Model the fold of this input.
Amino acid sequence: MFEWFKRLRRVAKQLSVAPRSEEKVARNTKAINLAPYTPEPKAFLGQLAYLHLANFEILTASLKYSPNTAFKAELSEAAARSFDKYRQLSKKLTELGADPAEQMNPFKERIAVFHSTTTGLDWYEVIVKVYLTSGLLDDFYFRLASGLDDDLQVEVEKALRDKTFEKFAKRVLVEAISADPVLGSRLALWGRRLMGDVLLELRAAFDNRKLAHVPKTKVLTVEEENTVNLAAYAKLEPLISELTGAHSARMETIGLTA
Done:
């Protein structure tokens, strides 16, 4: 794991930030084919559904801290759309003959740890956190869905296309950062700190053995398991580079230095 983070730092230093524009936000999101590494459908839907259920919980909890009534009303709508994403994914699980709660349960602890380590200190940090992490996670799962069957892929992509929260977050954050440079500096530090945590969450969506082409049933020593993990991390380095660039571009879009 430490070796992976060292390589991540080297990759991040080589990146350049794209010009601030809507079209450039996720410019590096199509070069790597993730289809061979897509989890089986129920596991894929289970973790994605729980991520959106957790987003809904975070957004609704932050409503009472909204700076004004207009923001509260808009954030309520954005939270409702996040719940709609969860509902669509949950419905697909039911159609596959699975119990949505049972499929989400294996990922609850991991996702809870992710959110507990990325808890914002105030309303603006919460909005930045959800804007950056959910944007990156939605882009990632949109691409990872390429390994699902065609009909299910279409349904997942449909669920992830709603950008209600992203539009709201961009507008309020740009306004707030333009009006308060001190807030902007604090949020920039926060945005940079989030990158490592969201990459760990993305990495957890993969099966190391599948990435390293090692059979799941093969018994490995601790040393061999470490070798497999490092081989898996190496496979992900190009993806890490792309996602780090996309994260930096999202920050720049709202006026933050990555």
